[in-house]
Amino acid sequence: MNRAAQTLLLTGNHAVAWAARLARPKVVPVYPITPQTPVLEKLTEFQAAGEFDAEVLTPESEHSVMSACIPASLAGVRVFTATASQGLLLMHELLHYASGARAPIVMANVNRTVASPWAFWPDQTDSLAQRDTGWIQYYVESPQEALDTVLQAFRVGEGVQLPVLVNLDAFYVSHSLEPVSVPAQDMVDAYLPAYAPAHRLDPQRPESWGNVVTQDMYYRHRQAVEEAMARVPELAAQADRAWAELSGRSHGVVERYRCDGASTVLLTMGSMAGTARDAVDALRDAGQAVGMVKLRLFRPLPVRSLRAALAGTRDVLVLDRNHSPGAGGVLHQELRAALYGMADAPRVHGCLAGVGGVNVSPRHIAGFVQQALQRPPQPESQWVR
Amino acid sequence: MQTLSTRPPVTTPIAAPLPPAAGELMCSGHAACPGCMEPLTLRHILAILGPDTVAVIPPSCMAIISGPQPFSSLRIPVYQPTLEASAAAASGLRRALDAQGRQQTQVIVLAGDGGTYDIGFQCLSSAAERNENILYFCFDNEGYMNTGAQKSSSTPHYARTGSTPAGKTTRKKNLTEIMAAHGVPYAATASIGDLTDLRRKVTKARDLKGLRLITLLIPCLDGWGLPDDGALGAARLAVACGAFPLVEVEDGVRWTINSAAPTRPVADYLALQRRYRQLPPCDAAALQAEVDEAWTRLVQRSAAGPHTTPTGDTR
Q: Are residues A52 and A197 in the same domain?
């Protein structure tokens, strides 16, 4: 067993595969889809080399992948899978089923445009369209954060018995190489003890799942799911702190970047945060009080942390790399709901920036800021590029 | 609420049901229609498989029979997946048990024909291709009977259902041939009308590894229009007239016919069932011709041996 962390040059996809390997899942059903395929190939490579002791299933569709994940998890083993875009959409029915079954599956999703028309570019509409399915959702900025987040996702998901989606942007994260610190197996084992749920599908102690329930039982079950969700922000923060103690790396639930004294704050998720950092640096250099808040945990929305992070800010610019027809940017919509009723709430400007994968540079973002501040916020998200 | 709920004690203020016989895995007090052969069939299956069994039961008559939460008529764990996902769910469950060193535990599917021939077929084909170690039972009542009798691709030619009020215009899909073409270790038909054959097949399937599928004909009192005491007779007549021949196929290549050559005309079988009411004589004759043709093909298959297989795969 390797005892020390090693630094490897990894893409986001391979960082995810390394995290999955280190988490020691026992069952991995998986189906290939661009741009997720390198996750699948790296895991099967690990398995073929005898370095990954998991049952790998390759069914005929993502629908069957998730159908296999749920009872495997209920049988009492750790389960991992990965998908993207259309694959995630094909799973939609089962995403609800998994959270209802309280199966703490961890799934990486490479955010890719949703057809039609066909496209392969970074866009978060695929996973944001799953926001009501009962899955915890993280969005990551880099391959290193992808690795760390998959490990934290198992800890959080198993802590509340809910499934977790870890989202990484197509290509900007999934295919970008960077030096990634890959932790030692010992460290991960200490962080993630073997999964041993109290209830499982087991003939030695027969229990069942899925039978028809009464209205009252259904109501109470949904309440229980909500109570579990409500525990997630604190648990996610704890999981991040515990990982920081072992690895030295913390990503927070909500990250504030150069927000001190900022009158304008950019709010975004995923790889756009990296671009926004550069934009903030340039604007600060030019004497403008601009900061950035990166939302890492999207579901449940950490409302209290978001309010605290944005308190005292005059204007917030939401950069949405997604599109909900008729509603605009999903994060724009979510933030306004989160801030509603807050005393001295900041003004919220919504920017549909980077939809369909169009390039958004730091210079573009500086332009969005100048443009937005020229007039009061509009109720509709604005198309900007 | 817990992830998996244990069964609470029964508190219904009615006379206590008879306790199940020692070792009986199917309890009385289940929710099947009176006179239905499905619980009786399952009772024999579970008696042969024993308690080290986990069942995957999609939405179907069997899901109703096995009981609403918090009750269960089966003394084994049950996982109810979505309608179209039984073989995929069973595969995931199988692998999770294998990963825990529980290879001896049987993972079974108890699905209807809608969940098998139609919406669940894609994942069944994939599980067959992967030769997952699961034992799949299709309780074939030839339609969506749990939703009030609509046609499935297992509904036979000319049968009237809620979605084919003038009679179905196409033939019943031949599931056994399709599964045999996948080259699975075991594909068979069985019927409560021939209990000895049914019990032998379940025992044989139990002792094999890989994907095994047994299609069981379950005459539906309501959906077929049978009297309450008519199910067993219909099951027997289905075999006797050749409409539902008893067969088994090993490794997709060795075909064996387990029922005698038809001794009764199909018309006798049709006359029992209201779903064939007012069937014109020409259609009855066409059905007879279809049954005769299928029987001839079966005889050829069983006589020919492994050289005329659909796949040529003799494993």
A: yes
Residue of chain B nearest A226, judged by CA positions: B1
Select from B4, B7, B49, B74 the residue whose CB has the most chain A CBs within 10 Å, as the one to mutate to test that interface: B4
Split into its structural domains, chain A has a count of: 2
Dump pLDDT digits (tens) for A139-194: 999 999 999 999 999 999 999 999 999 999 999 999 999 999 999 999 999 999 99
Domains of chain B (ranges; CATH) run 38-308 (3.40.50.970)
> Which pLDDT belongs to residue B23?
79
* Token pair recorded at residue A355: 């939809």
Each residue's pLDDT tens digit, A298-355 = 999 999 999 999 999 999 999 999 999 999 999 999 999 999 999 999 999 999 999 9
Return the number of other C-beta atoms located less than 10 Å from residue A374's C-beta: 6
Based on the fold, state whether residues A187 and A260 are members of the same structural domain: no
| A298 within some domain | yes
Q: With a CB-CB cutoff of 8 Å, which residues 69-128 of chain B face chain A? A: 69-72, 75-82, 84-85, 87-93, 95-100, 105, 122-123, 125-127
Query: With contact defined as beta carbons under 8 Å apart, do A74 and A200 qualify?
Result: yes
**Phi, psi values for residue B217, rounded to 5°:** -75, 125
Q: Which residue of A has its CA nearest to B62?
A: A211
B52·A203 Cβ contact <8 A: yes
Instruction: Report the CATH number at residue A317.
Output: 3.40.50.920
Looking at the structure, tell me whether residues A226 and A273 fall in a common domain: no
The CA distance from A228 to A105, in Å, is 15
Closest-CA residue to B246 (of B263, B226, B266, B261): B261
Instruction: Give the minimum alpha-carbon distance from B306 to chain A in angstroms, rounded to a whole number.
Output: 28
ipTM of the complex: 0.95
Give the structural domain span for A358. Answer: 254-384
Q: Which residue of A has its CA nearest to B98?
A: A55
